Amino acid sequence: MTSTPITPMAGAPAPEAKIAMGWMHTAKFLTTAAQLHHLPPLAVPEIAFVGRSNAGKSTCINTLTQQKQLAFASKKPGRTQHINLFALGRQGVMDAVLADLPGYGYAAVSRSDKMRWQQVMVNYLVSRPGLTGIVLLCDPRLGLTGLDEALLEVLRPRVQQGLKFLIVLTKADKLTRAEQAKALSVTRLQAGGGQVRLFSALKKQGVDEVAWLLWQWAHPAAPGADSA
Ligand SMILES: Nc1nc2c(ncn2[C@@H]2O[C@H](COP(=O)(O)OP(=O)(O)OP(=O)(O)O)[C@@H](O)[C@H]2O)c(=O)[nH]1
Ligand SMILES: [Mg+2]
Q: Could you tell me the pTM of the whole model?
């Protein structure tokens, strides 16, 4: 498999981008679970990708890891139905885990299924040991919706206790430059001081930056990781 070329971007100088993208590329499928208690206990930092159905969570994971089909992405909303874990680490030594979560807000799912899933997700976000960071993916054409706001509320106490938090505005290629700038500033206000990045899987925009941020989350003691 050929890896994505590294393009230096603002906020992620080339050496850091290379480290972060190389690390991301080590991702391997670890396990899948429909329920929280089926997830294995893990002793490494876990970073969860959450957001509305179809926001681009699975595509974001595939882009960051430079693997086309690691996470299942699909035009059909509701494609991800389990919590899928991917192990990261060089020389087969796992040092972090990415978690791809099913999206919420998918209209075609029955009310009882929605409620059940929302409960699993809330329990996961509130109680999963090792959860170090949350990446909330949001389609900037929709903006943060009521469900996203509800999730931010659930997360607030854990963020205050040190949980890392990033909002990724996906599908930036669908916006003009002016719309991108506007989406960024509006979401920054809503994020209450949290980090926000523009991202496009199609144009590889924001990829190095997000990878570097996640690397810093997972390696807080490493040189250069104190700014995340
Ligand atoms: N143009 C464009 N399309 C994207 C981008 N990222 C994702 N998509 C498309 O958006 C659709 C949904 O992507 P997924 O990654 O499956 O979304 P998801 O959030 O994992 O969805 P669920 O698993 O249903 O929660 C797919 O058709 C992707 O090709 C992007 O950066 N640009
Ligand atoms: Mg998905």
A: 0.91
